[in-house]
Design brief:
Number of strands: 2
Shape: flat
Distance between the termini: 32 Å
Strand content: 5-15%
Radius of gyration: 18 Å
Largest sheet: 2 strands, antiparallel
């Protein structure tokens, strides 16, 4: 229990829901179940992001150099808006430049698959702060 379990669970759910979106079968393959699975994956993403939202800012602020704590704590707050802008731009590009068949077949999945392909991971371990002796979380590698 505590910060570690909450943050790791939220990030695991977020990653699992994103992978599920990337490999979700189409309507022609499983019918109306595809619609329900898509909605379920998006709901899971929203719940997971809400669970990780507060923990990431405090984790990064605790591990930041004292002169840059505000900057580090701001980064997780920009993740969702910047991701939405990039994904929307890719989505608009593909919607405008692919045939309808290609777009509905694979084009709408491309932003998700691109993110999975380029994800690099590193670990941050926070010093002991209260309830669970530290937090270990997977975050983007700054290299």
């Amino acid at each position: 229990y505590g910060k570690t379990a909450k943050l790791v669970s939220a990030l695991f759910l977020l990653g699992t829901a994103t992978v599920a979106l990337a490999f979700l079968p189409g309507y022609s393959e499983i019918g109306v179940a595809a619609i329900w699975l898509l909605a379920l994956a998006r709901i899971a993403q929203g719940l997971a992001w809400g669970g990780a939202w507060d923990g990431m800012a405090s984790l990064l602020a605790l591990n930041a150099p004292p002169s840059q704590r505000g900057w580090y704590a701001m980064v997780p707050q920009l993740g969702a808006p910047l991701g939405l802008i990039v994904a929307s731009a890719l989505f608009a590009y593909f919607a405008g430049n692919l045939s309808a068949d290609d777009f509905f077949d694979w084009g709408w999945r491309y932003p998700v698959l691109r993110r999975l392909r380029h994800q690099r991971r590193g670990a941050v371990r926070a010093p002991a702060h209260g309830d669970d002796g530290g937090i270990c979380v997977v975050v983007r590698d700054p290299r």
